[in-house]
Design goal:
A hairpin with a 4-residue loop joins β8 and β9. The relative contact order is 0.08. It is built from 22 helices and 29 strands. The chain is α/β, with parallel strands linked by helices. The chain starts with a strand and ends with a helix. A 6-stranded mixed sheet has the order 1-2-3-4-5-6, sandwiched between helices. Helices cover 33% and strands 18% of the residues.
């Protein structure tokens, strides 16, 4: 796609109906920085229509391209719209004569003013995407140069990381820009200089200004005195505000509040609503699916956090606080009686209970070698179908699809398979033969056809979406039911998007049916190397240096196995003492255990627990408000996610610990700069070293391999203590000591 960015405004269908997953409408904005071809625009619009079935409108914005060129391009691609259920196509442009942003559609009609709620919704999407609300790390609060204290800070500069974003914000600022030339533009922070420059360029293109005024940053409150020379012919841009205090101070010095524009605003709790010019007021409203709750704010002389002895970290002008990342702990939760407090949701327990011990799940040992997301768990569809027949039966029964089908679509099931289930046993006529998904495009369209799309297990959400796209043309005005025994998704949001896409049609969000069966959350991988890839490279390095005949048999055996296998059910983890394979104990809280579970089964369960815990243990099947701001634990500039060492203590089975080590990303096992957590993990490993002498150090080798491949990182002195403990033990075998020597090499390379 040539779209440099896309923004979505989700709003309620009416002011009386609060926005929820089923009631909001979507207005999409595609922003282009320069000229584009009709082919590019056509593909971009197709992608939006395919990915967002609730899209009410698609708006094109290209401020540096003439309005006529944009309109002609839109008219050329309007054939893409489906008459029965199509988003409106239009483009946004600025009318300098009336100083308003207007919308013009591809069909005949007068331009209409862009609704403020839509513009603000797009800005809210940008603001949230760039994480512009910065939360104070634990143990401190923010002291701003305004004299106010809060736990959150608006960092608008995060939204201005590219020229496109600056151009977009400049365009939405145009209604507040003077029509005549200005002599100088003032900005309160350095990154806004780029927005000011874009305002100048766009004002020139529209013949609003003749001159190119200089732009000057006055560093917020610290530089207010520099505005004393400002005359009445100026423009002041404020990046973000929670009280409007800076604008009031500037107004006192310049005596012209009409030329002060605040880009982002969120109301501070306990302060009056700011009445000045604001491009995007992001304060939460009941009728909108976006927005931020008022930020709790105190004046410095009456700050509750200061009274409690919590230190204030200050900002000075353009200088942003240098801080340690906030640490979010990934903690797998379980509770004996309360399912709501467990990290297993959406029918995952039923799914894993059914498929375990059947060889239905295998693990892909090697990454594809690219950054394309991939699922490292592979499902044997036939075995999943055999194991989950009851779930599929329930889904088919719940579905309203009639026994008399015109079209049956399935890549795994036959018409005989479907005929074995209720309500199809009593069908009067024989079912049509199953059509493979890749043959759908060859079918002749049948008006009002009745279709059933059946899956044993949906492994990729892209497959049913593609089928859905084709079926809209194959079965116009027909009924389609999508049924699966299990659906694998990366997050509750992804499941809700899939459900909306498959259900939406000409009659709204409930035109078609989708019975998902068990919904299992499993995150996709993006690392170039899997944990087994890293292990293979490390072992190969040992052999290359020492020679194949000089290394212990255990390492040669493991290296050969990794070379020869692309996927596996067993032998995923290093065995414990006496070559004992790691297995579950009978008291596993998430699943009934009978001893026949494969390591792949257990690893898949842990992958699901980790993914669900990252999503804050939300149930994908639960009804939830889409306006929830924090949807998952994520690594960012301001926060990091680390596996809570307590997971290795409460789940003390070696196979569970090994699964957590392999399922976590390297960034989630990086305790190098966190002394307390590093100490906790070190204590666990040292205990395993001591247990080897009494034949109980089953997980030790997996910990050592994680350290030797740098997937697990500890503070340097903790790494050294682990290495020394292993090398000095009289009970640790030579192959584990050789692996520990790789930790030494990694440590030396890091310190160089």
């Amino acid at each position: 796609m040539n779209v440099r960015n896309q923004f979505i405004c989700r709003s309620a269908t009416s002011a009386e109906v609060p926005p929820t997953v089923d009631t909001y409408t979507e207005s999409h904005l595609l922003v282009y920085e320069s000229e584009f071809s009709e082919g590019t625009l056509s593909q971009d619009i197709r992608d939006v229509i395919a990915s967002f079935p609730l899209a009410k409108s698609i708006t094109i914005l290209a401020p540096l391209v003439s309005d006529q060129e944009v309109l002609e391009s839109l008219i050329a691609v309007r054939h893409l719209r489906n008459a029965s259920n199509s988003p409106e196509l239009r483009f946004a442009h600025f009318d300098a004569a009336i100083k308003k942003i207007m919308l013009t559609g591809v069909d005949a009609g007068q331009p209409e003013e862009l609704p403020a709620v839509t513009r603000t919704g797009w800005m809210a999407d940008l603001f949230q995407q760039r994480r512009c609300v910065v939360h104070a790390p634990d143990g401190i609060h923010f002291g701003k140069t305004s004299g106010k204290h809060a736990l959150s800070f608006l960092r608008a500069a995060n939204a201005l990381t590219g020229s496109l974003e600056c151009m977009l914000l400049a365009f939405f600022t145009l209604p507040h820009v003077p029509s005549a030339d200005v002599q100088r533009i003032y900005v309160d922070t350095g990154p806004l200089v780029a927005v000011g420059a874009s305002i100048i360029e766009q004002a020139h293109l529209r013949s609003m200004w003749r001159s190119r005024p200089p732009i000057e940053s006055f560093s917020s409150y610290d530089g207010l005195d520099r505005l004393s020379r400002a005359n009445t012919n100026h423009l002041v841009l404020i990046s973000a505000s929670t009280s409007g205090g800076l604008a009031e101070e500037i107004s006192l010095r310049t005596s012209n509040e009409d030329r002060i524009v605040t880009l982002f605003y969120i109301q501070a709790e306990g302060f009056d609503q700011y009445q000045g010019a604001v491009v995007a007021d992001l304060t939460a409203r009941d009728t909108e699916a976006w927005g931020y709750s008022p930020i709790e704010t105190f004046r410095a002389n009456d700050c509750k956090w200061c009274k409690e002895g919590i230190p204030a970290a200050s900002f000075e002008g353009d200088q942003f606080l240098l801080q340690k990342r906030k640490v979010d702990l990934l903690n797998i939760a379980f509770h004996g009686t309360d399912a709501g407090r467990c990290s297993m949701k959406g029918g995952a327990k039923e799914f894993f209970s059914a498929v375990k011990s059947r060889g239905a799940i295998s693990v892909l040992l090697h990454a594809p070698g690219t950054n394309v997301p991939y699922l490292e768990l592979s499902m044997d569809q036939a075995k999943v179908l055999q194991a989950c027949q009851q779930t599929l039966q329930a889904a088919l029964t719940e579905s309203k699809a009639a026994p008399s089908l015109d079209l049956l679509v399935s890549d795994e099931l036959t018409s005989s398979d479907i005929a074995a289930f209720e309500p199809y046993k009593s069908g009067k006529g024989s079912l049509p033969a199953a059509t493979k998904s890749d043959h759908l495009q060859d079918l002749t369209p049948t008006h009002r056809a009745n279709a059933l799309v059946a899956f044993s297990c949906i492994e990729s959400v892209h497959i049913p979406r593609k089928i859905n796209e084709i079926l809209r043309a194959v079965t116009p005005d027909g009924t389609v039911s999508y049924v699966a025994a299990a659906t694998l998704v990366e997050s509750p949001e992804q499941f809700k998007q899939l459900r909306s896409a498959l259900r939406s049609g000409a009659n709204g969000p409930n035109t078609f049916e989708f019975e998902a069966g068990s919904v299992v959350i499993l995150r996709y991988r993006t690392e170039a190397l899997s944990s087994w890839d890293s292990e293979l490279g490390m072992l190969q390095g040992i052999v290359d240096i020492g020679g194949i005949d000089a290394v212990p048999y255990e390492i040669r055996e493991r290296l050969a196995w990794l070379r020869d296998n692309g996927s596996a059910y067993e032998n995923l983890f290093w065995y414990g003492q006496n070559r004992q394979a790691l297995k579950l104990q009978s008291d596993f809280v998430f699943l009934p255990v009978d001893g026949s579970e494969s390591q792949a089964d257990i690893y898949a369960i842990v992958c699901n627990l980790v993914a669900t815990a990252l999503g804050l243990n939300r149930d994908p099947l639960a009804t939830s408000d889409i306006s929830t701001l924090r949807r998952a634990l994520e690594f960012s500039v301001y926060s990091e996610v680390l596996v809570d060492p307590n997971n290795f203590m409460k789940f003390n089975d070696a196979v569970l610990r090994a699964s957590i080590l392999r399922a976590a990303r390297p960034s989630e096992l990086n305790y190098e700069s966190n002394l307390p957590l590093s100490r906790s993990v070190t204590d666990i490993i040292l205990y395993e070293v001591s247990e080897w002498r009494v034949s109980r150090g089953q997980i030790l080798t997996e910990f050592i391999v994680a350290l030797a491949t740098s997937r697990l990182k500890l503070c340097s002195h903790h790494t050294e203590s682990v290495k020394e403990a292993v090398l000095s033990s009289a009970y640790i075998p030579s192959y584990v000591k050789l692996l520990a020597q790789e930790i030494q090499k990694k440590s030396e390379q890091t310190s160089m």
